[in-house]
Task: inverse folding
């Protein structure tokens, strides 16, 4: 937890400039332009001015703070900001934090739209990591529980470009499967580590244990989709000819589900 005396002293200095564009621009800040989306899962040693959409995923870190300007959207599924840095939220910005056991300066807080003029938000993200966000806002912040409701239907394609989709469970190989980005769903929201196809998990690359998953435009519509390589020999896999189901969760804790058909070869 940040030292309260230091934090209050800093807040008096920065509060008067928090909503002035020049405050960040003088520092050579990073920027998410209006109409653009940044899916952040790595560290940024800078300020970040957000005019478009920022999604913070596990691994995201912004060292010098985030400015959410009017008309922007910030979804915080995980991630951190630097010590004594803050999230500054202007009127007209929409900032949502997804977590459990949420508290403001140590006091429990309800879900929904919450005024956070100058408080530290703590709790747990859906991936189990700690929430510790110093927020300075002239508008309410949206606090939401991870997940909720039934599975989100997603469009998938096993072996993209192939039909039918032959699968040889004894091949000791991998199967490509795409989860498509649509107008209603952003495939970048999916946590690849939670995905299974017919019970089979996403494969890892060698000793690095890095998941074989990447974003690319699989269907050529201009939007990046999530392309996964599924391990046919994964523990728990059950392969049968007919429809198979892909399941998983988003970084925000929402369940997803999609189906496609396969043919088992050689025939069972």
Result:
């Amino acid at each position: 937890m940040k030292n309260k005396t230091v934090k209050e002293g800093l807040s008096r200095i920065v509060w008067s400039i928090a909503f002035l564009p020049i405050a960040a621009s003088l520092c050579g800040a990073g920027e998410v332009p209006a109409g653009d989306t940044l899916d952040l899962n790595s560290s940024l040693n800078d300020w970040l001015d957000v005019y478009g959409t920022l999604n913070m995923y596990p691994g995201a870190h912004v060292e010098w703070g985030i400015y959410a300007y009017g008309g922007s959207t910030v979804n915080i599924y995980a991630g951190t900001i630097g010590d004594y840095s803050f999230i500054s939220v202007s009127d007209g910005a929409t900032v949502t934090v997804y977590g459990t056991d949420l508290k403001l300066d140590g006091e429990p807080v309800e879900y929904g739209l919450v005024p956070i003029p100058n408080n530290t938000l703590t709790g747990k993200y859906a991936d189990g990591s700690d929430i510790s966000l110093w927020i300075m806002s002239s508008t309410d912040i949206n606090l939401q529980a991870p997940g909720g409701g039934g599975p989100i239907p997603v469009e998938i394609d096993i072996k993209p470009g192939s039909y039918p989709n032959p699968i040889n469970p004894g091949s000791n190989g991998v199967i490509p499967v795409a989860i498509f980005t649509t107008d209603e769903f952003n495939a970048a929201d999916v946590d690849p580590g939670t995905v299974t196809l017919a019970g089979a998990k996403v494969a890892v690359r060698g000793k690095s244990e890095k998941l074989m998953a990447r974003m690319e435009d699989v269907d050529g519509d201009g939007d990046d989709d999530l392309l996964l390589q599924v391990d046919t020999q994964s523990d728990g896999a059950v392969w049968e000819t007919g429809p198979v189901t892909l399941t998983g969760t988003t970084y925000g804790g929402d369940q997803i589900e999609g189906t496609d058909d396969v043919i088992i070869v050689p025939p069972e």
